[in-house]
Amino acid sequence: MQPSEEVKQRINIVDLVGETVQLRKAGANFRARCPFHDEKTPSFMVSPAKQIWHCFGCGLGGDIFEFVKQSEGVEFPEALQILASRAGIILKRPTTEYRAETDKKKTLYEINDLAAKYYQKVLSDSKGAEIARSYLNRRGFKPATIAKWQIGYAPDDFHFFENFVTTRGYQKTEAAAAGLLVRKDDGSFYDRFRGRIMFPLFDLHGRVVGFTARLLADAEGAAKYINSPETLIYQKSRLVYGLHLAKTGIRKADFVIVVEGNADVITCHEAGSENVVGSSGTALTQEQLELLKRFTENISFAFDVDEAGLAAGRRAVELALSMGFNVRVVSIPRELAKDPDELIRKDFSLWQERVAAARPFLDFYFHQIFANIDLSESSGKKQAVSQILPLLSLLPDPIDRTHYVRLLAEKLGVDEQLVLDLLNRAAVAKGRVAEKSAGTRRLVRKSYEEILEDRALGFLLKFSPDLPGEWEKFGVQDFGSLVNREIFAAVVAQRPQGLEDFFVANPRFRDAAQLLVFAVENELSALPEWNLEDAKPQFLGGFRHHLLKKKMRTLTTLIRQAETTGRMDEAKVLTVEFNNLSRDLAKYHAQ
After folding, report:
1. Domain for residue 106, yes or no?
2. Pairing mode, if any, of strands 359-360 and 326-331?
3. pLDDT for 328-357, tens place per residue?
4. pLDDT number for residue 443
5. Quick one: the chain helix, strand, coil %, rounded to 5?
6. Could you say which of 16, 277, 286, 332 has the lowest number of CB atoms within 10 Å?
7. What whole-number distance in Å separates Cα of residue 394 and Cα of residue 23?
8. 299 and 249 in contact (C-beta within 8 Å)?
9. Residue 499: what are its φ and ψ, rounded to 5°?
10. Within a domain: residue 444?
């Protein structure tokens, strides 16, 4: 028996889910409010007979592993470990190499945890740490906060931790592999961190994997902050500071605030803003944003509104936009404070006001750009286009793109079609550059949404004469790809009898359309038996299901914004629309 099946046999889904939400009997099943989205009417169902759960509001569902994945923000291997431990099952390690690496990681986790406790003890008890205690007191950190975040102090000595870790039975080479000791050319070792405030770095599950160390006294040639080097358990590009404590707050608020420094994160949490994480002074990577997207698709960046601050945050914003995040900006004018930490220390309500006033990034960026450009000259218009157009091309949602294309056209005083042509031309040029450099670039996988969209359009094209009513169930706005939108619009406008007729009228779409159709034919050829009616739900149903959930997520955000700003009539109208879509989704599942 597979370990996953054994775990399923030992854990009752009702008991597991019942620890997170209040379940009520509903016939043979149990009902509750969904823990993964806000709802007033319970639509979250648990089936003890089938050992599955499903939410008819947000569309999520699965078995015990999927529930742990969604609630803990982990992947399947970690969910298996969590549930196996709960069931008292010891998972077997398959290979010698795997066991060796796992043992090494276990040792590194132990040493980093030991180091955090050691530095904490030094901070609280050592006379030599008085300067560190005074610094933290001046910064306003409470004792409970220092304990919660395990802040410590590394003595200003080359061998204190080296001597300590060996007394606990660990090798110096192991402590060096954990990033806490440095090995010299002659084979001797010394402490990496000396005379610094120590901020432990935690992974998603709250394990210490490294440290950020802040220098207390200025020293010539010494960096103010230094981090642990990358190790088997610490990869800088994959760690989001504070996420282990922020994930519940993020899911509850349905948005995350990204600040720059560790101290900013800690102060925000101390004050009650528990959906805040830190970028640790660098632009967020794709891996970090993918981690955040497990918990929300709404992200707010809090950075300086000057040119340096915009430049520093631009890369992360571009990446977030391209990944489908709804991006906003929490701006902190210099006259108020230099960072969130200072603003909150001054007055927490000021920070709350700035968060509530956060603007969509492109609205904010439009204002910043046009405030400093003279649009009476053609050079100013060209400058605005060159700065804004690349951002518009990153927006995956066609509704967002249309909105900002119209706004840019109005600002420039030009025809909207001209901006659209420029955007399309830039997209084509970008595609050509990608083609030329394909041999030297890492392939980028299509998103799940893109795959569903391609399969649906390819199926419609392949069987166009036999599916006249199916085309009417979709709209141009449902397709995120520019080429797919244009193909769809051309077919709907011309109603060709078959592919060849379409290609004659639209030769420029031949390659793209043939590729879509080929993928569908390839997939159908792998099926032993199929017919058109049975294939329709497989190719078109998944895309419709995705569009329904996407529209519901958008409405959820709009409803929350309307309620927050007191626009209750608008919220009611949007709620009716949401409930209609929810019923459509329920019908879809029933079918």
Report:
1. yes
2. antiparallel
3. 989 888 888 888 999 999 999 999 999 999
4. 29
5. 60, 10, 30
6. 286
7. 42
8. no
9. -60, -45
10. no
Residues 106 and 179 both lie in one domain:
yes
Asked if residue 34 lies in contact with residue 58, where contact means CB atoms within 8 angstroms, the answer is yes
Please report where in the chains the tokens 């994930």 appear, as a residue.
Answer: 247
Q: What is the pLDDT of residues 236-259, one digit of tens each?
A: 888 999 999 998 898 888 899 999
Same domain for 213 and 272, yes or no, is no
Residue 443 domain flag: no
Residue 7's nearest CA partner among 103, 101, 105, 76 is 76
Residue 214: which domain range?
96-234
> 52-111 pLDDT, tens per residue?
888 877 777 888 998 988 887 777 888 888 888 777 777 765 556 656 777 888 899 999
- 109 and 225 both lie in a single domain: yes
* DSSP letters spanning 403-457: HHHHHHHHHHTS-HHHHHHHHHHHHHHHHHHHHHTTTTS---PPPHHHHHHHHHH
Give residue 173's identity as a one-letter amino acid code. T
**Residue 580: its pLDDT value, please?**
82
Percent of the chain at pLDDT > 90 equals 28
Tokens describing residue 506: 């639209």
Query: What b/e readout covers 184-201, taking b as 16+ CB neighbours within 10 angstroms?
Result: eeeeebbbbbbbbbbbbb
Sequence length of the chain is 591
Tell me the pairing of strands 52-55 and 44-47.
Answer: antiparallel
From CA 206, how far away is CA 204, in angstroms rounded?
6
For the beta carbon of residue 206, count every other beta carbon within 10 angstroms.
11
Q: Within the chain, which residues score under 50 in pLDDT?
A: 431-445, 589-591
If one counts the domains in the chain, the total is 5
Provide the residue type at 405 as one letter: V
Q: How far apart are CA 23 and CA 17, in angstroms?
A: 8
Question: Encoding tokens for residue 462?
Answer: 């392949």
Query: Where among 87, 109, 136 does a domain terminate?
Result: 87
What tokens appear for 458 in the block? 């390819």
Among candidate residues 87, 116, 147, the one where a domain is terminated: 87
Residue 106: both structure tokens together: 């276990």
pLDDT of residue 522: 63
Return d(Cα 591, Cα 586) in angstroms, integer.
9
Q: What is the pLDDT of residue 433?
A: 41
The 3-class secondary structure across 203-260, one letter per residue, is CCCCCEEEEEEEECCCCCCCCCEEECCCCCCCCHHHCCECHHHHHHHHHHHCCEEEEC
- β-partners of residue 181 are 191
Pairing of strands 298-303, 326-331: parallel
